[in-house]
Amino acid sequence: MKSLKSLTLIAAALVLAGSAQAANITVKGSDTLVVLAQKWAETYMGKNAETKIQVTGGGTGTGFAALQNKSTDLCNASRKIKPAEQINCVKVFGKRPTEYKVCLDGLSVYVSAENPVKELTVAQVADIFNGKTKNWKEVGGVDAPITVYSRENSSGTYEFFKEHVLQGKDFAASAQTMPGTAAVLQAVAKDKNGVGYGGAAYGAGAKALAIKKDDASPAIEPTEDNVVKGVYPIWRYLYVYVNPALDKGDIAKYLTWIRGDEGQKVVKDVGYFPLPKNLRE
Amino acid sequence: MSTTTVKASRLDFRSRGFDFVSFAFTSLTGLATLFILGVLAIIIANVVWHGWSTFSWRFLTGSADQDMFDVNKAGVLPMVIGTALRVLVMTVFVVPVGVITAVYLTEYAQSTALTTRIIRGAVNNLAGVPSIVFGLFGLGFFISFIGRGIDGGAPEPHWGKPAILWASLTLSVMTLPLVIVATEESLRAITPGLREASLALGATKLETIIKIVVPEALPGILTGGILAVGRAGGEVAPILFTGAAYYMRDLPHSLTDQFMDLGYHVFILSTQSPDIEKTRPILFATVLALLLLTLSLNLVAVIVRARVRKKMRAGH
Amino acid sequence: MTNAPHTAKRTVGWMGIHRGHKARPAEWLAEKLIFLVSLTAILMVFLIFVFVAREALPLVFGQMNSAAARPVIPAKEMGKLKPDELRDYLALTPEEFKRLDKEALTALMEVREEEGKEAPKDKDATVNTTEWKYLFAPHEWSDSRPEDRYVWQPIGRIHKYNLWPLIIGSLKTTIVALLFSVPLALAAAIYVSQLCRPSLKEWLKPAIELLSGVPSVVLGFFGLMVMATFLQGVLGYQSRLNAFVAGIALGLAVIPVVFSIAEDALTSVPRSYTQAALALGASKWQAAWQIVLPAAAPGVFAAVVLGFGRAIGETMVVLMASGNASIMSFSLFDSTRSITATIAAELAEAVFGGHHYRMLFLIGAMLFIVTFLTNLAGDLIMHRLKGRLEGKAK
What we know:
A: 281 residues; alpha/beta; 2 domains; two-stranded parallel ribbon; elongated; C: 394 residues; two-stranded antiparallel sheet; 17 helices; disordered N terminus
């Protein structure tokens, strides 16, 4: 075992110049946020060499489980914490975990580039995804049946869409659930009658529809500007949760930095949308 | 006993010149064989064709800390190391236990005894447990029960979380039957004369097993180990909850760290990449790396095994 | 099964040496240790069942309640509750209750109050959806369309856990996989073991077994990225990923299993059978079809049974290529969600120790029982076949 360990260490040393032991922050949770969290960590470590941040994904639920049993300091979440998770945390921390909004994510509705439909109202989107609308001609498209692509029901994106667009109703049973936003996009790009949804940070390969809040409102493209100003109707916050007892020193400094201008600049690079000025640090 | 008795009428095989039915069925079964091999060839060819251009030394030795979705920067070294580590650690656990079980079954056990039957039954059954159930088992037993148990009431769990160690242990349970079966086969291939000669020279049974029988069966043990590594190297379902990480900047430093994994990375790239068209070359190259690993291991196992079998035929 | 002269013969010679060991304690000890280690396989099968089932037990005994709306007591009325009432209301264990301070208890009360505010108010709000009847019997949910009465939708305001869509999904992909792989694998087994030249066999057998060296995640990838598009182009069905695509990709994982077992069974039929048939003027094909195959039939059957076990338990292929829609549909060209894919996709996001988490362990335990029984059946059949052929040959 000893030789094995030294083997790892040698291999590690080959790739990374050994970094000094210092403040260690572990981050775990949503796979939606893992790339962004990694970028934050790298940028921050580049400026604060004494801090070491380790980021892993696994899912929002996994993140909360780890937060609650203290195997992680910060939990990335693509949805709000659930009551059951709050209760678990209170039992361990004696307090509720502190919630920080860290960036915005606009959810786009994607169709194939060949699809003539350009805009839909939120209500039309809801009807398509819960199975009421079955043919594209009902929303101004060609006479063809709609194929609905949805996300895995465990994903934060799924829950958000279900709560806020479908108003809590179930997705059409025939909706195909894909394990990731990329899979949704790929399916939509290849299926001229397909429709799907996903983070606006993705997007290549398919066409994002402009969305109208209701019949009377203008159609809004899911661009950064529109999302940050709050005019695009389908968007959500992404969160980081922390045990309040740990929210001091290096961790607090890091959280402040994430939510400040520098951290929010990284958000843009990765493809999410920065917090509006009034929510920043 | 009577099912293999053949009716006399069916034994009337007088040949009637060219037998069309016989020809047709021989070709049909031959075609089926060819079809299976063809599919295998298509899979390999497709992966090599699309993956070759990205599959470079830089790709193999590049780390993922730049951007794992960028064709020009992404590398698979962390995944290769993660996969290698987890199968190496697995081998440490599975080979001794597998070999000792095989030694018991061939050298000590009464083949008709009930215990022997149950052990064999368990080995065969273990081979058929779904891989995802191993994942649940790893989470429920190794992490929640053993890991948390070691931690006791420690405020910060050190053992009770996904880690290389737990993933490896889970995989070693999964691959145990492979090692047992391969070792048993080669133990049986050893001529009884060898054992008898050793005994006649005054060695005890244990000495004979340690110094004569097991060394003689090394090729078989090796086959088992290689097959286990090949199988475990590509498995994803058992490590989903027991140790594989979506993304880690640093390489694992100890057995209680999580790791990135080739197979899991294939899953991530196929389903969660931000732009499937752009990352397609990385995906195919990663699949190619994984296939090279598992297929070459299987190929080696096949060759070693063929030698063992030849020896067995020569010995008897 | 027991064969008296056989046993008697084994008690002498090499196998009998462990008798009279008492004089050599080291030998005796080593043998016992070896025996103990060899019990690992049994222990592991046992532990797998115990520890997967353990996580599901609270569900089985009806101790979990997934009702969305529970009675709520406002947080500011906490002082009016007796300690026991408060502990009951917050569902705390006595140790937890002792450990938590007033601030924590208030926080818990607040969480319950907020939960109550967000809970739906309709007829299904107070339903404990983890009861057995909701797992298997149809139910008209207030927030699903009336025709969807078998629903697996664990996330949402009401947690719907009907298992039928998953069971049917698993069976659909399994059946396609078997229909595709069994004829191919059996034909190849007959060809390789009986019809082709021995020199060719040396090459063919390992080449086909190499297919088992292709990891299931690669088969899933191949199904998702290559086969799905190709098959949709050829057959023109609507959903790109469905039970058919997943079944075919799954079949590729099943072929090596069925092939090796069937080939072994066919090869284990004594050569004398074939030789006798050939001597009587049979063609190679007739000898294979009419003599060897019937003699090895139980082994071939076992190969199919074990192939079934492999197919129903395979995860990554179905997770990636089946589309994962939990629809109650018997069409092979509808997207499908299987038991294994459900566990793989949902466990990481489920609340640790919650009803969803335990439900996934429950379906995992069910899956284990099914594969345990099929493996056991396959094993018993093979054992009888071996006994029969060996008995015959002697």
